DNA-binding transcriptional regulator, MerR family (Algoriphagus winogradskyi), 296 residues
Amino acid sequence: MSNYSIKDLEQLSGIKAHTLRIWEQRYNLVTPKRTDTNIRYYDDEDLKRILNVAMLNAHGMKISKIAAMTCNEVSEEIIRLTDQSLDHNDQIQALTICMIEMDEDRFEKVLSTSIIKLGFEDTILKVVYPFLTKIGILWLTGAITPAQEHFISNLIRQKLIVAIDGEVGNNTGKTFMLFLPEGELHEISLLFSSYLIKKHGHKVIYLGQNTPDADLVSVYNMQRPDYLLTVITTSPSGEKVQEYVDMLGNEFPEAKVFVAGLNATEHPLSLPSNISVLAYAKEIKRFLVQLEEQIV
């Protein structure tokens, strides 16, 4: 069970801390606990309660009415809403509750419903990515446990792998080599890129997580791909990001190299002429569309 500050509740629910305190005092929606040093905190049940209340309130239900509902009535109404709603924030809230409860069946239903309504790409871009950004921030602050983060990330990873396996068409375009640097394990963006590349008719050489530099060079010399794509989320970090980018520029001067990820975008980098930084997931899709036009 995790402990949350009122600021954590604010970040997760989108409801201001001041409003949460008013709801707490006026409607007794949640009751904060206190540590041995008298610091207020909230538990998983409190967070679920606030997320549900925030969603119902956003759909026009008055707080006084919500406060009078039983837990079962609230849950039933939330399920009804998420099954019908096209609002991205509703889906993100629902996924957050699935993460807290570690409810695989409900997660599967929420995500599958979103894919049916929005399509696979828009679900990843408009629901999954914002959701992962939210839980990533909370994981860094210690508001959620690594187990919760890993649980939901692995379920999303499974969805991406199934989608990639479904792209078995004619991959006769360019060749892309996808990899993560040594020590880098955050694979979701790389998997989504693999899906997009294959969907646009190109070949993917997928090396995956934690790729040693020597192996990268060896596979490149064997396959001679047209493009390289990597994502730097946590490793390397600091000044080593520039060193890694320089290595890529020196080792693969004949290939176009794309670098994405938090550690590649939050620091100013001196880029070799054959390297470009992708700030957003949509940029790889934009490039693929442009490449398609050039080939045609």
